[in-house]
Amino acid sequence: MKLTHFLLLTIFIMQGISLVNVTLMDNDWNGLMLWVNTSVLIAATALTVKPVDSIHEDH
C-alpha cells in the first residue's frame, strides 16, 4: 500500500469516527472519540516516520 493511500485511509477513519459520534451518539462519546482518533493519529505517524528514516540512512 502506498504511503499516500495509507494516510488518506487514516483521515477517512478519523472522519468516520467523528461522523458516527455526531450522528448516532449525539456527541455523548467525545472522550472515547478523542482517544481513538489520537491513537489512530499516533499509529499513522509512527508508520509514516519509520520509512522516511530508513530512506535518509541510505544517503
Number of strands: 0
Give the N-to-C terminal Cα separation: 24 Å
Shape: elongated
Order of helices and strands: HH
Residue windows where pLDDT falls under 50 for at least 5 positions:
none
Oligomer: single chain
Helix content: over 70%
Helix/sheet category: mainly alpha
**Major sheet: size, sense and barrel closure?**
none
Compute the CA-based radius of gyration: 15 Å
Our estimate of the beta-strand percent is under 5%
Number of helices: 2
Mean pLDDT: 85
Plain-language structure description:
The protein is mainly alpha-helical. It has a domain at 11-47. Helices cover 83% and strands 0% of the residues. The protein is built from 2 helices and no strands. Helix 1 runs antiparallel to helix 2 (30-57). The longest helix has 28 residues, at 30-57. The relative contact order is 0.13.
List keywords for this structure.
0% strand; 2 helices; 59 residues; mainly alpha; single chain
What's the gist of this structure?
Helices cover 83% and strands 0% of the residues.
Secondary structure topology:
Blueprint (H helix, E strand, L loop, with lengths): L2 H21 L6 H28 L2
Helix pairs in contact: 1-2
